[in-house]
Amino acid sequence: MNLRQLDALCSILVAADPWPIKQEQKEALQELATEAAKKHGFADWFDAYNRADRKIRFLEARDRLEYALSYWEGVRSTEAHSELCTARDELEKIYDLR
Question: Is 75 exposed, middle or buried (0-12, 13-18, 19+ CB in 10 A)?
Fold first, then answer.
């Protein structure tokens, strides 16, 4: 399960009240979400619910920075390339993406 799918599942787990399914089925979905959450570095599904959207935004920002860096790759001496590298490094420090 990718991070966006996990985020959607966690949102459903929080929003679906009252549940249209049996308690055992709800618990099975919570266990599935917790397993996926742990694979993405979260403590459990509720932690993922609270923090997944932030991680998604950081990953998207990192991807945009990497794209920009690839554009400036041939001109490493430029100030723009240096600033993009600094921005990428700071982003990775903020969310420990390495």
Answer: exposed
Domain that holds residue 77: 3-95
Q: pLDDT tens digits for the chain (98 residues)?
A: 898 999 999 998 888 877 778 889 989 999 999 999 999 999 999 999 998 888 888 888 778 877 777 766 666 667 777 777 787 787 777 766 54
Closest CA to 46 of 30, 29, 26: 30
* CB 87, CB 72: distance < 8 Å: no
List, in order, residues 6 or more apart from 37 with CB less than 8 Å away: 6, 10, 43, 44, 45, 47, 48
Look up the pTM and report it.
0.64
